[in-house]
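Hello Y.,

Per our agreement to keep a running log of every chain we model this quarter, I'm adding this entry. I've kept the format consistent with earlier entries: sequence first, then predicted structure.
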Amino acid sequence: MLEPSNNNELPPIPGKRYFTIGEVSTLCEVKPHVLRYWEQEFPHLNPVKRRGNRRYYQRQDVIIIRQIRALLYDQGFTIGGARQRLSNEDAKADQTQFKLLVRQMIVELEDVLRVLKS
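Predicted structure for the entry above:
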């Protein structure tokens, strides 16, 4: 995940819904051709493409780009290593959500059991 110390050197993300590739390039201090390359290398990065094949990035895309940038430039990961690291973080988040869902189902089933017993 992007460390707060790395986040201080980059400009804040404005409260917009969509960003052009030029805006994202400025926000993340990465050239547009690098962003287009990262789209091919990281399945997590998938901007909306509209008329004329123009890319429109959402806030989540900008956050992912900043994470990729931190992994590659600040922490020295390779492209493959950064891709694997992001996949591992996604898997951990999925596991956490799954555990919460199971706990919630257990509580609901216990409630149903109490109702049936009474």
